[in-house]
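Appendix B, example 12.
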Amino acid sequence: MTDQDRLVEASRQLAAALRPGDLDATLSNITAAAVEVLPDVQWSSLTVKHADGRLETVAPTDELLCDVDAAQYELQEGPCYEAAVDTVHITAPNLAADERFPRYAPVALRAGIRAQAGIRLFDADGSNGALNLYSSRVGAFEDLGALSLLFAHQSAMALDYARQIDQLQEAVRSRQVIGQAVGVVMERYSVDEARAFGFLTRLSNNENLKLRLVAERLLEAGAGDGSRG
């Protein structure tokens, strides 16, 4: 099989493995696909850097990565940390001999990890995320090549789709909650829909709270009143 054939086959596998769904499922699909599709990858995880600088491991394919990733965050050293914080792509084909990670390398070696790579997957407002690849074979990831770029591109597309789905679902939930609250106000104060909505909006502005939170509080208070009746 030629390199071109392998790339075509990998593209086909990626399209199947990274079919977008909800956000949690997409994150798990990405790390599972990394192990299945990318050569020499035994384990994989994702690191998300939040707006406050906190680093979080999500969708690890093995629990051992939780401790391995945590060590990199604590030491502020290692491919996982670098890819999430500083460098877009980083490879460490031989951790035992890598002078960049003198404190982290022994942790990885004790876990059976001999080579590692980090690939930045997305940069969003206030956060970014990187894919962590781990191998037990010295010399892995010397040339990630076109396949890693394809994987990163496909993964970013799947994540973007999943975030849009989550945002849409959140918007629908918000509209439903606000609509219910408007109905409660209309019934309670015998006002029309416009006046009820205006009442909720004024509460939102006065209390400096999102309209959905105001609506949720009103509904909770209504449920409490009902239970006491």
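Strands lie at 43-49, 55-58, 89-92, 115-124, 127-135. The first strand starts at residue 43 and ends at 49.
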